[in-house]
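Example 3.2
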Amino acid sequence: MKQLIAVPLTLIFYLCFAFILLFFHLVQVISYYLLGYHSHKISVDWLNFFMMNTPRILGSKIDVKGIDNLPKEQSIIIVSNHQSMMDIPPIIWLLRKHHVKFIAKKELSNWVPSISFNLKKGGSLLIDRKKGTETVRQIADYAQKLKEKGHSVCIFPEGTRSRNGNLKEFKAGGLQSLVTNSGGIPVVPFVVHGNYKMFYKGLFPLQVTQPLLYEILPPILEKEQDAKTITETCRNQISTAMQQNEATC
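Structure, written as tokens:
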């Protein structure tokens, strides 16, 4: 039965997703050039609210856990596992009060409606992953300006998406550079549960009725651990949370 309804629901999902990207691209352009940063940010927040909720079209139930763990009114470093293109919208929407920016590969800054515009104009850092030493230096410079601007940053230390949901080893250079140079900003592990299963058999048809859970873990303070230890702690905590919730997602 699921396979019968998966095809039409997937078509509707992609049509809605494409419409959201195109509509909010126009809204972002108008907001950014005519009204400035704060208006543009609001448009990005609502873009991601709608993108986060598009899996409901497929019958997915979306839950959020640990929202009270977020530090209030300060910059943070969000460290997340990476399973699919659907990981980013909940981070932006749920943490919208923290002005979340991203460290992203520069290839994403071209040709993707809404996404590319926000990466280029919204304050994120675009990097060339082939230039390791230069990239770490860029991240260090970027980290030093976070508190000054009142922004937060999200990084996916695995580097690429995990197609099977298993947590990959962290590429620690970028995260450690953020922690070392951010002036004591709390590090908040963010755990994505179940997103990869939507795409487990490919992009079409998508899997229906897949439960999704986004979990925010308690912050880790730099004054309590050094950068290397924080990196290891983040991975261990995310891995443990994934194992504990595997049965439900």
